[in-house]
Specification:
alpha+beta, 38 strands
Amino acid sequence: MALPTSARVVVVGGGVIGTSTAYHLAKQGCKDVVLVERDSLTSGTTWHAAGLMVTYGSTSETSTEIRKYTKELYRNLHKETGLETGFKACGFIELASNKDYLEEFRRTTAFNRMLGVDVEEIGPEDVKELFPLAKVDDIERGFYVKDDGRVNPVDVTMSLAKGARNRGVRICEGVSVTGVKKKGRAVCGVTTDKGDIECEYVVNCCGMWARQFAARAGVTVPLQAAEHYYLLTEPIPGVKQSWPVIEDPGHYGYYREEGGGLLVGLFEPVCAPWHTRGIPQDASYTQITPDWERVTPFLDKAMRRVPVSSTAGVKQLFCGPESFTPDLAPIVGEAPELRNYFVAAGLNSIGILTGGGMGRVLANWVLTGKPDVDVTYMNITRMNDFQANPAYLEERIVESLGLVYACHYPNRSLKTARNVKHSPLHARLQRHNAYFVDVSGWEGAGWFAPEGVDPKSLAERLTFGRPDYWPQWEAEHKAVRDNVAIIDMSFMAKFRVTGPGAGAALDHISANRVNGAAERITYTQWLDEDGKLQADVTVIKVAEDDFIVVATDTALRHVQAHFRKHAPETVQMVDVSDGLAQINVQGPRSREVLAKVTSADVSHDAFPFRTARHIDVGFARALCTRITYVGELGYELFVPASQADHVAAQLEAAGAEFGIRYAGLKALGSLRLEKGYRDYGHDMDNTDSVIDAGLGMFVSMKKPGGFVGKDAVAAHKASGNAFKHRVVSIQVLDPEPLLCHAEPLRRNGEYAGYVRIASYGHTVGGAVGLAQVTACQGFDTAEGAFFTDGTWTVDVGGKEYPVKVTAEAPYDPSMARIRM
């Protein structure tokens, strides 16, 4: 085929993700699509994939639904294309080889069942019956999905490609895309070794090359290829194609029939990155020479699950590259650096089992300009530019791949590629014995160990129960509630917004009124045209057309991209996160402490709630805001980085008589969830309307000029009770069970939602969190009988506990503590 000179969409990369995206673009009505592949379809990493088709295992609703869609697509695609995908519903069994895996999988099973995955918990003898060669005397339980199974990755890709061609997509193999053409901040075409193609959209589905290809366009895609192994045995008597796939993360292995023998796949805890400085452009159908010395100990352990695999003849120990991301989530969406440049890459070895659904999600995103599912966990905008550095990836990917089969404890902290960013208070926090955790590259204080105790010693034991640092966490929580504490939040994303019309621009983007009087801080949401959430920020009006916007750390690039989309070029947004520390002083005695270090009048009358004013603190100057994220009287001080340590020293000295202490992020989380405070990307997302998120009180419908999404919000309000769900607070009434997230909720025995985020409420005496509650008959208003009349329970690993569900905060719903 002659290379086309124009198309609406150019998809770069001919693996399963690229062909699925092209297929779904055409299926959704966009036939003017060109897919360009530098070699031949599947030649990157798709060709050697193991082909598992598993819906079980995720605690993300989006990921689970993507898997379910993918399985049904692969099951039925041949009816449309005439090409089989190799789908076999042979079943899948997840093995729990110890008590911790059992706890994890029971929690996962509860969530998956709620979403319609038919999971059966079975005993060792049942596993043995289904997979007779498996050693089962040391397993706790198995989790069996009868209808899951396997596919042939090449056949899947060819069937998707044929389906795309049948719908008008042009596929050009043997063509290398060499660059992306731009017009202003948007895509306008691609250059290839065979000529240029003018286009409106570019979709980077380049797999392990995605980072290199994106860099040519100034786009950040942090992923890295690593060695991935599986062993193929010679034929083994008695092995049947009908046997289920089994997975045993405790032994690093997955197992299925292949050619009358066995395929023993491996996700070892310590991997080997491959070509960190760049993947060779001619790396097609790549087979890496196996490192027997490195991999043999891991392989030996994997083979113990099916002992015959160690005595059968070895046909091949295959090693090929697979790409992984720093946080083990895909990188998907529109690049914040370049409009109409989309990415779908970094699938972390689940590209086949999510490929169909991922292509559908991305195609819809390209054509409508917005995703129709929660994408906050995989949105490309969550990534930071330093994460694409080869040195960072070389270190982090070893850990992230190693976590694929690790038990997913809620208190695990990533250990590699650390100390990228230090708060100006870092040395001070170290002296106070902080245990640091990775917060978007920042070293954030999770909690503080007692004097003379190594903080790491309290974090070594990973558990689903109470961690060893529980007493420290509880004490920090109670210090904020009962006394006063300092919380370093310098990791927050902070922007200076200035220029003619800055106030009008921010007022247009914000649902609340933010361009009122100066020296005022306002909590607001940024919405899309459908009234759905895009950001959750505070806006400080320092002076006329001079503002500071504060957002959560993971939303930094997302906030920038949303602002650029809606603000005129005369208004400038500058990231000042690194240069501006944020020191919070919170608790009922915070005013007394602050009054001792400043000449400013910080009394309630002179400095009421939501005031934002520059004050002196010792020798320093700080922008002081009276605001809280923990539900107490408190202040947030924005201080130039060069003066931050001085300010902290002043606060420590002034607070000594009150017993002031530092509090970490564990306490911050438990305090804010007792108050029901939201955090975009964690407990609310891009599928939530501002009303469904329970934030309608922060929308100013009457402000002059309106705001982005106003018409949709007005229509939502006019519809009365016609909404799908509401984000609400929950409190477990039994003080013993702990929540992580994704625990199903039931009302009168019927599924009614699930927990999005959770912690432990040391003040209220039980686990607390925010949950998505699904609307059903009887869901009247936030204060209605739907919450109070029903019997509510939460499913924690198969055990039901009574829970209180409320639209109000479990702690101080009248907000009297904040306004004291």
